[in-house]
């Protein structure tokens, strides 16, 4: 049951992050901001979908639960875009209240995602018996971890 709840917390972080990105895209009115957001959104959704799918598979949820989680992940970004489009006529994304609200929501979802990545996902892989017995695998894994972190950080250039 602990495994299931940790993956459900991961989905909560991913889903809240997806809604916020969708809202940002929905309220954007300039092609200069829409193009980078679509690029970032595509990469985020692609890799988060793979990560979440792997976690759902590893947790061995029942078919109905796995389907509900996958559908919930699939509809959150379009829902955020729809909400953003609906409020874009009267929403000022540069107002102090909007910036504070977005900062708080971003930090909450980032906190969940970073915690889950470090404590539940990476830790389980890096402390496994297979990893501790194979030095080459350790070096390759750390290299790929830092490469992935660097590539994800480079997305901030366009976000």
Report what the structure shows.
This protein has helices spanning 2-27, 31-59, 63-87, 96-126, 129-132, 135-154. It has 159 residues and is mainly α. The protein has one domain. This is Zinc transporter 4 isoform 2. Belongs to the ZIP transporter (TC 2.A.5) family. InterPro entries: ZIP, Zn/Fe_permease_fun/pln. It is found in: Membrane.
In brief, what are we looking at here?
With 159 residues, this protein is mainly alpha-helical. It contains 6 helices and no strands.
Mean pLDDT: 83
Strand content: under 5%
Low-confidence stretches: none
Q: Strand-and-helix sequence, N→C?
A: HHHHHH
Rounded to the nearest angstrom, the distance between the terminal CA atoms is 37 Å
Keywords: Ion transport, Membrane, Transmembrane, Transmembrane helix, Transport
Protein name: Zinc transporter 4 isoform 2
Family: Belongs to the ZIP transporter (TC 2.A.5) family.
InterPro entries: ZIP, Zn/Fe_permease_fun/pln
Output the keywords.
159 residues; mainly alpha; 6 helices; 85% helix; 0% strand; membrane; Zn/Fe_permease_fun/pln; Zinc transporter 4 isoform 2
